[in-house]
């Protein structure tokens, strides 16, 4: 064999080897169908808003893209009329609920009516042929963005299962059952968006963070939660963490009944809270301190709302008024309870007799510490999602930055909601998980995830 022939053969062999390596790499990264993803969470997967099972089982009329723009879902198009007082949403044809029932305008209206009743953002809703028509006494310029929120996902009404969990929807996964605290979802082969890669998802509920991380380390879990306060610890333990920008508003919602009908007392409470201590100590300097309802990157004016604690002014506004036995409750796990305890200490410094109570016990609660999801990056729609999540049925009418600022100033001056921090959402993933992304609100988009080799 000549030297030139040998060189050519060697080059061919190298090219074949490179091509084989490229094919192998492609095979490793290409999504595979099959397998069961094991998820562990602290809370309830059916909670509203934000429950993981709800997100996988139910769809909305619209959905939010990663860039913050609204896109079609069960509705394929929509149009406003009468200066945004009337909206018509045309439904996607050929879509069925998981039990085979066809999606039509009547069952969409029934679902949306059951969700919010007389407290809906709109005044009336009607089924008109293949469309759903919303009418409102006030303008609803951001209704498509609002309907993309978790609160307004569509569930089939009139079913025993749906009555319990709102569990019959049109999503990529369908509810199969619950056993010993494990909720099982299986792939919807006939999903209008296409079949998901995973065969099933098992959601292990009410698991402590310690147990979640332990199970992840020994391969018993594929996806677990990471609180904002645990970022550093997760990195020290070399967990693979995916995190969102700050998308959850830690805030206090305030009752305006009883002693707190006095606006000066509500203002005193707002000034007594030490945001810096919450940020530095409880949440380990993750996210950002805020006195605004929206993150700084969305409006650009959040710096105009003070975040400083002013105990002297809080005492002055308190003025010796009695607000005996103020109760504060926290929605969420141990860290939220710890934050509530810290806030109770702040209020005692200002002369209030504040006690932390359980959120799930029937009683009057004066202050509630909550995490409110930011469901849109559009300023007006994002503001409305936060305000409504806080329980304030106030339509957001300001569309310009100046108008939006004026609206927010009026809301915050009433002291019915006290913004504290904006926090990110994060999860730790196991080595066999592929293509997992977080949605605009920081929740995992499991419909697009897959497992290595479909195992």
Molecular structure report:
Helices cover 31% and strands 23% of the residues. The chain is an alpha+beta fold and 455 residues long. The protein has a domain at 244-425: Dipeptide-binding Protein, Domain 3 (Dipeptide-binding Protein, domain 3), CATH 3.10.105.10. The strands form five sheets. Strands 11, 12, 13, 14, 15, 16 and 17 form a seven-stranded mixed beta sheet that branches. Strands 1-10-9-8 form a four-stranded mixed beta sheet.
How many strand elements? 19
Mean pLDDT: 88
Largest sheet: 7 strands, mixed
Q: Please state the structural category.
A: alpha+beta
CATH topology category name of one domain: Dipeptide-binding Protein, domain 3
Give me the CATH architecture of one domain, please.
Roll
Percent strand: 15-25%
CATH C-level class of one domain is Alpha Beta
Overall outline: globular
Distinctive features:
455 residues, 4-stranded mixed sheet, globular, 14 helices, Dipeptide-binding Protein, domain 3, alpha+beta
In short:
With 455 residues, the protein is of the alpha+beta class. The chain is built from 14 helices and 19 strands.
What is the strand and helix layout of this fold?
Elements (H helix, E strand, L loop, with lengths): L2 H27 L6 E5 L11 H6 L4 E3 L5 E3 L2 E7 L4 E6 L13 H12 L7 E5 L2 E5 L7 H4 L13 H6 L7 E7 L2 E6 L12 E5 L4 H9 L5 E4 L4 H6 L3 E15 L8 H10 L2 H8 L5 E2 L6 H4 L11 H8 L7 E5 L3 H16 L4 E3 L10 E7 L5 H11 L11 H13 L3 E13 L3 E2 L15 E2 L4
Parallel strand pairs: 1-10, 14-15, 14-16
Antiparallel strand pairs: 2-3, 4-5, 5-7, 6-7, 8-9, 9-10, 11-17, 12-16, 12-17, 13-17, 18-19
Helix pairs in contact: 8-11
């Amino acid at each position: 064999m000549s030297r030139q022939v040998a060189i050519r053969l060697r080059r061919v062999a190298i090219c074949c080897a490179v091509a084989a390596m490229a094919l192998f790499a492609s095979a490793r990264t290409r999504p595979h169908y099959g397998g069961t993803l094991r998820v562990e969470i602290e809370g309830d997967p059916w909670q509203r808003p934000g429950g993981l099972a709800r997100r996988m089982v139910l769809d909305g009329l619209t959905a939010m893209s990663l860039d913050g723009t609204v896109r079609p879902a069960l509705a394929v198009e929509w149009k406003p009329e009468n200066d945004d007082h009337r909206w018509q949403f045309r439904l996607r044809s050929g879509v069925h609920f998981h039990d085979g029932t066809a999606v039509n305008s009547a069952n969409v209206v029934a679902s949306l009516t059951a969700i919010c009743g007389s407290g809906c953002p709109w005044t009336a809703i009607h089924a008109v042929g293949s469309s759903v028509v919303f009418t409102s006494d006030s303008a609803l310029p951001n209704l498509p963005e609002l309907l993309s929120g978790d609160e307004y996902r569509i569930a089939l009404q009139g079913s025993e299962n749906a009555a319990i969990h709102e569990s019959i929807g049109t999503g990529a996964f369908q509810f199969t059952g619950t056993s010993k605290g494990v909720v099982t979802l299986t792939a919807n082969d006939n999903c209008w968006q296409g079949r998901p890669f995973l065969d099933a998802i098992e959601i292990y509920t009410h698991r402590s963070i310690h147990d979640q991380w332990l199970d992840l380390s020994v391969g018993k879990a594929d996806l677990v939660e990471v609180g904002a306060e645990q970022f550093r610890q997760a990195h020290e333990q070399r967990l693979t963490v995916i995190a969102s920008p700050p998308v959850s508003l830690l805030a206090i919602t305030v009752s305006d009944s009883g002693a707190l009908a006095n606006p000066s007392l509500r203002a005193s409470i707002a000034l007594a809270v030490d945001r810096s201590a919450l940020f530095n100590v409880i949440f380990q300097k993750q996210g950002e301190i805020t006195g605004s309802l929206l993150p700084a990157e969305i409006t650009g004016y959040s710096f105009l709302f003070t975040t400083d604690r002013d105990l002297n002014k809080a005492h002055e506004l308190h003025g010796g008024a009695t607000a005996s036995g103020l109760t504060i409750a926290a929605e969420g796990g141990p860290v939220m309870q710890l934050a509530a305890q810290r806030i109770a200490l702040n209020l005692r410094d200002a002369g209030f007799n504040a006690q932390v109570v359980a959120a799930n016990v029937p009683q009057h609660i004066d202050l509630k510490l909550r995490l409110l999801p930011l469901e849109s990056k559009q300023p007006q729609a994002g503001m409305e999602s936060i305000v409504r999540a806080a329980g304030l049925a106030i339509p957001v009418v300001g569309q310009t930055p100046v108008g939006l600022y004026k609206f927010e100033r009026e809301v915050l001056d009433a002291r019915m909601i006290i913004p504290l921090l904006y926090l990110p959402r994060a999860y730790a993933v196991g080595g066999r998980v592929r293509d997992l992304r977080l949605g605009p609100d920081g929740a995992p988009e499991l419909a697009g995830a897959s497992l290595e080799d479909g195992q």
